[in-house]
Amino acid sequence: MDCRRPGGRIHSDWFGDAVIEYGSDCLKPASDEINQFFQSAIQDGLIESPITYTSLFRAGDCRSISNPIGLAAYELFKKIYCEVYYTGGNILQHFSFRVDQELEVFPDHLKEDVARIMIGLLAVMHRRHGDNLPLIQRSKDGTHLQIPNGRVRLSLGMNGILSPALKAIPKEKIVYNKPVQNIRWGAVECENTPRVQIKCCDGSVFAADYVLVTVSLGVLKHTASTLFCPALPSSTMDAINKIGYQHRDHIYAKFRHPHWMWYRPIDTIPEWNVELEKTFGECSWLRSITKIAPVYGSETLLQVVVDGPFAQLAEKNAPLDMASDLKKYLTIAHGIKNLPPITDVRRSEWSNNIHFNGAYPFLPTGVSADYHLHLACSLPGCNAPVTPMIFFAGDATCPKPLNLLQGAKISGLREAVQIHELIKTRSTSEVEVGYCN
């Protein structure tokens, strides 16, 4: 974690006339493996590599459901949905009856996947209507009122979420600028002996009974083998090594004066064409742009998001070079002439920051979601002679694809409850708690 401020990847900052967000708030599942026919075509030179093939649906264990099955189930769902529209009646009852009928058409080895998709799509409807879904008639489905101010935005940035928690903690309890050298744990419980010792790079040592590790997965990948003494168990190390950690760079360009036009949208991502490749080359960071949008509330700021390995390349470019390339890109790709000069560029640089080494976790192809649970396990485990003393929190410890804020909050509360229960059951009257940030 960055030793100079709280929040980690929750990072807001003022830039020009608006607040910008450097933080990443999503978990992307990995794309599917290319099937054998596509692999053969690539080897024979019939199709240019790389090719990504994304599935529409995933099972509860993060296993991808093939597109033909997914599309068949989706078309079946639409068919039943239209039937309810014309016949009326109770949505939930009709769906349950018709799904049971249609599942008989599918082979036995496909019924479970089709049923999962149907239930998932029905859950989307349930989320829209809440617990009143069984009472809603199809003729009324889709009738809604627009809620005023439905989109909530923090005027001072996402850092504002941290303010209540920081105010509740005494200032002397939070120590910044203390990079950790190693964590010694596993001591036998006895009087006047600390269960955990945290040694910092400046030589200072903190004693604790419990340590909650909240550093990013990228930091654990680079330091876990030497940070803990004794070493972490193989199940935890396997989880750290096998869960992926993706790169993302948030880039903000400040133009000299406003130039947005309501009739000329700038938030579309044009296809990478021959002219762009001729101008910038095959390995330009510009080809991995996934978002272009004006910053909300600003007249001069433009946000650009770059995902994947090219995000690391973008972070290594000089700001002036990025400004020049971005202006050329907008001119060629969007056909915008006479763009004002870009006077300043800021970027998140998560991948090249040693306190993060990446932006967000994801599950690579073939990796089970159980590894998130393995990483969330406290140490030592249940069969150890001593109670747990090392705990892990963060979005990488959540088995469901939650965004950064949800993952941080849910996992933090999960470990806080566990530590609180352990404190209550301990026989000693004085307990010290340490935080490893």
Automatic annotation (TrEMBL):
<dbReference type="InterPro" id="IPR036188">
    <property type="entry name" value="FAD/NAD-bd_sf"/>
</dbReference>
<dbReference type="InterPro" id="IPR002937">
    <property type="entry name" value="Amino_oxidase"/>
</dbReference>
<dbReference type="Pfam" id="PF01593">
    <property type="entry name" value="Amino_oxidase"/>
</dbReference>
<protein>
    <recommendedName>
        <fullName>Amine oxidase domain-containing protein</fullName>
    </recommendedName>
</protein>
<dbReference type="InterPro" id="IPR050281">
    <property type="entry name" value="Flavin_monoamine_oxidase"/>
</dbReference>
<feature type="domain" description="Amine oxidase">
    <location>
        <begin position="5"/>
        <end position="419"/>
    </location>
</feature>
<dbReference type="GO" id="GO:0046592">
    <property type="term" value="F:polyamine oxidase activity"/>
</dbReference>
